[in-house]
Amino acid sequence: MSDIASPKSSSAHWTREGLIQGARAVFPVLPGTLAFGMAFGALCAQKKFTLLEVQGFMGIVYGGMSQFVAVQSWPEVLTAPSIATLALLTLTVNIRFFLMSATFRSWFGTLPAWQAYPPLLLITDAGWLLSLRYRERGGSDASYFLGGGLMLYAVWFVAALPGYFLAEQLANPKTYGLDLVFPAFFAALLVPAWRGRSSALPWIVAGVVALVVQRVLPGWWFIIAGSLSGAISAGLMNGNDDA
Amino acid sequence: MLEQTIALGRTDVWIAIAVMAVVTVASRLGGYWLMAYVPVTPRVRRMLDALPGSIIIAAIAPVVLNGGSVVIIAIAAAIGVTIIKRNDFIAVTTGMLVAALARAVGFSG
To answer: In this complex, is the C-beta atom of A52 within 8 Å of any C-beta atom belonging to chain B?
Structure first.
């Protein structure tokens, strides 16, 4: 059960064990990932997308939340302006990956670029959160992230299929509490992210800003606004903790 | 021709998918790339350390607070279970179960 591999001081490296360990670590979110993908498949069936188009979203875009938001607000006719609107929508939902990607520099930074960049294409909320926890416990094996990322990608890639073919039965995912999968997973990983009192101010700032922005601005800007405000407030605090 | 359209999908849809993919890939790689040029001073270090918790809070706070009593109770249950028993799977299942049961007995939200 231990996630501890090697001390944080050791630099990023690759091992077969880490790959398996990382793939195992994502097991708790696989049912939720599958359910989320199924719900997306069902939505696409209702919106008359072809199966191959659905697989295009799953395999090439690979961002569940952005796929949902895009397909839900899919324009009647695709024109250059409406595609630009979709691009902006995708950006506001997925720009959080930019912040997650930034946190990998201190870990993957010693790897050559050709080894560091490709795994980052697999950044997801769940994979990132789990790797972060692994890292905080002293892990430095880059395979841990890759293993989890590949496992999540493989499951996600097939997840829409049952939903696409069983569209009617999955019309209301809320009945099964499926809308709680990711909020509950996020909440669970919030507990180990708490670092004592120094966490309080950034968290409060992040939450308040996200709530306010969500009321004021349409779309998904609240995620990036809240995240950045929280981080900036931590940067502005006096650095007497010497952590 | 019609069959092909059904099988392969529509060109404009594939263009939209490609555009969405480019934006997403740029997001996934961009942060890492940028941090090569940002010197990690103690201040930047503190910001990066606070980033994960801030992202989580910013992403779920509006969902939870606007989700109504069912979502709030389900998330509280998931957090409670995590504090007692550090297991992601049990936390997610608890959150889903609590919400599904609450809705089944007639709570809305």
So the answer is: yes
In chain A, which residues have pLDDT < 70? 1-9, 168-171, 173, 239-243
Question: Domain-by-domain residue ranges, chain B?
Answer: 1-38, 49-109
Reported ipTM: the value is 0.85
Contact between A108 and A142 (Cβ < 8 Å)? yes
Q: How far is residue B61's CA from residue B55's CA, in Å, rounded to a whole number?
A: 10
Count of CB atoms situated within 10 Å of the CB of B91:
28
- Is there a contact between A184 and B87 (Cβ–Cβ < 8 Å)? no
The residue of chain B with its CA nearest to that of A187 is B79
Nearest to B47 among A61, A78, A232 (CB): A232
Give tens-digit pLDDT for A197-222.
888 899 999 999 999 999 998 878 89
Report how many Cβ contacts below 8 Å link chain A to chain B.
Answer: 298
Q: Are A123 and B28 in contact (CB under 8 A)?
A: yes
At B30 the three-state DSSP class reads helix
Contact A237 B23 (CB under 8 A): no
Query: If we measure between CA atoms, which residue out of B97, B78, B62, B31 comes closest to residue A216?
Result: B62
Nearest Cβ partner for B9 among A52, A91, A209: A52
Q: Among all chains, which residue has been given the structure tokens 């972060």?
A: A132
- Per residue in A100-132, pLDDT (tens digit) is 999 999 999 999 999 999 999 999 998 998 998
Q: What is the pTM of this model?
A: 0.82
Quick check: helix, strand or coil at residue A13?
strand
- Inter-chain CB proximity A195 and B49 less than 8 Å: yes
Shortest CA distance to B33 belongs to which of A121, A143, A88?
A121
Query: B56 to chain A: nearest residue by CA?
Result: A186
Supply φ then ψ for residue A13, to 5 degrees: -150, 180
Confidence of residue B60 (pLDDT cuts 50, 70, 90): confident
H/E stretch holding B53: helix B42-66
